[in-house]
């Protein structure tokens, strides 16, 4: 009886020691935003998490912990030439997240470095194929193109690119001054064209009015009287010199001194 009791005690001690040794290698805990990729004897077994789970000791292991939260990765392309030869530095930020933990762990050695490297290459490529003016004015279109291109590239890695945003485009000071002068010249040119068009319209209106007055002398007289009235409204101290022929045409020959209007032959 004593021997049996001793054997039971020894077995309990061995079992307790085995638990102490194996338990740390068997228990895993995942945060809500994490997933652990389980390899069973070197082969893919499962994706576990979140919460508490157990592994088969010495058979299963979890070498990869994947973060499923949206990542924000800032990137910068320094001194990159545009299609028309302008040197620019572009800052952008990429929003991406892992959607398939198995692919992210098994299909690419370092999915974070792969995403950043692909984004850097895509940014330099789109700068090199775009003129400076389009790069400055069509940011939203370029953002959408970069996001679509990166999403296609990272899809086999289990990564989803949500959006890309260009934050800043820096160009040399000399080029900035040249663009400012060019914009000013364009504005002045547009103003001159508008002024010329206005002058043409005014001249055409005067020509049309002259044709009307040529066939309607009464209309011409009324227009002349209205002009004199508008000028005389400015004040009693106004002196107006009007040719007598004009007064005769308006039948105002006897009113040459009215309100400071002087007639001169």
Layout of strands and helices, then pairs:
Blueprint: H1 2-26, E1 27-30, E2 34-40, E3 43-48, E4 51-54, E5 60-67, E6 71-81, E7 87-98, H2 101-106, H3 111-128, H4 132-137, H5 139-154, E8 159-170, H6 173-215, H7 217-232, E9 240-243, H8 244-249, E10 261-264
Parallel strand pairs: 9-10
Antiparallel strand pairs: 1-4, 2-3, 2-5, 6-7, 7-8
Helix pairs in contact: 3-5, 6-7
Question: Strand share of the residues?
Answer: 25-35%
CATH architecture of the largest domain: 2-Layer Sandwich
CATH top level of the largest domain is Alpha Beta
Q: Please give the oligomerization state of what you see.
A: single chain
Major beta-sheet overview = 3 strands, antiparallel
Within CATH, the superfamily of the largest domain carries the name Band 7 domain
- In total, the number of domains comes to 3
Mean pLDDT: 81
Spatial order of strands in the largest sheet: 3-2-5
For the termini, the CA-CA separation is 155 Å
- How many DSSP H or I helices? 8
CATH topology of the largest domain: the name is Tetrahydropterin Synthase, Chain A
Helix content: 40-55%
User: What structural class do the secondary elements suggest?
Assistant: alpha+beta
The low-confidence parts are 253-264
Q: What is the CA-atom radius of gyration, in angstroms?
A: 44 Å
